[in-house]
UniProtKB/TrEMBL annotation:
InterPro entries hit by this protein: Methyltransf_16, SAM-dependent_MTases_sf
PANTHER family: HEPATOCELLULAR CARCINOMA-ASSOCIATED ANTIGEN, HISTONE-ARGININE METHYLTRANSFERASE METTL23
Key word Ribosomal protein present: no
Any one GO cellular component localisation term in the record: nucleus
GO molecular function term, any single one: methyltransferase activity
Name listed for the protein in its UniProt record: MET23 protein
Organism this protein belongs to: Thryothorus ludovicianus
Keyword check for Transferase: yes
Assigned keywords, A-Z: Methyltransferase, S-adenosyl-L-methionine, Transferase
Gene for this chain: Mettl23
Family per record: Belongs to the methyltransferase superfamily. METTL23 family.
Length: 198
């Protein structure tokens, strides 16, 4: 799939992250949520339908992905959800102007290793600005050689693995969708690593 088309499909990781949001739907009303690399925006749409105040974002260099975000909102009767052009690793006026955030969402954003550090620098910037926020992310294990552990340490971030069975996402058919199938999908929550004594 060409880079510019990544955001035009619902990927299995999005279905799993949407399941996590659904399992935690009672905690979402009033929460401020930002989805990065949103594309078709399934997790963000689910969060918005559950009462969260959602902002969707994708690369400002991919206008068709931003349009896909807008179309998903309109199809799901969410015309007031803002869509923001936000390119990973770049400090932009849109990034600087974001209001308080409680949760950052990202499904399958750890797809291409050349983007990993740009993603985590953006996450670090957002978490520094919102120290109690968390980054909820699902990813597909595509290579045993791909890891973000060193980058998490570099950017003073920590990750907590979330077992799929803990929110009913360890099934082949999830939410009446056969999409997750037998893919190797993992979930983690990334937050700021606290210094000793803080």
């Amino acid at each position: 799939v060409l880079d510019s088309q990544y955001g035009m499909y619902v990927w299995p990781c999005a279905v799993v992250l949407a399941q996590y949001l659904w399992a935690h739907r009672r905690s979402l009303p009033g929460k401020r949520v930002l989805e990065i690399g949103a594309g078709v925006s399934l997790p963000g749409v689910v969060a918005a339908r559950c009462g969260a105040q959602v902002t969707l974002s994708d690369s400002e260099e991919l206008p068709q992905c931003l349009q896909s975000c807008r179309s998903s909102c309109l199809m799901n009767r969410l015309p007031r959800v803002p869509v923001l052009g936000l390119t990973w690793g770049r400090v932009s006026p849109g990034l600087l102007s974001l209001a308080h955030i409680d949760i950052i969402l990202g499904s399958d954003v750890f797809f291409d290793p050349k983007d990993f550090e740009d993603i985590l620098t953006t996450i670090y910037f957002l978490l520094e600005k919102n120290p109690h926020a968390e980054f909820w992310t699902t990813y597909q294990v595509r290579s045993a050689d791909w890891s973000i552990e060193a980058l998490l340490h570099k950017w003073n971030l920590k990750s907590t693995h979330v077992p799929l069975h803990s929110f009913g996402a360890d099934k082949e058919h999830l939410a009446s969708s056969s999409m997750p199938g037998r893919h190797t999908i993992e979930m983690m929550i990334i937050s700021l690593a606290r210094s000793e004594g803080t």
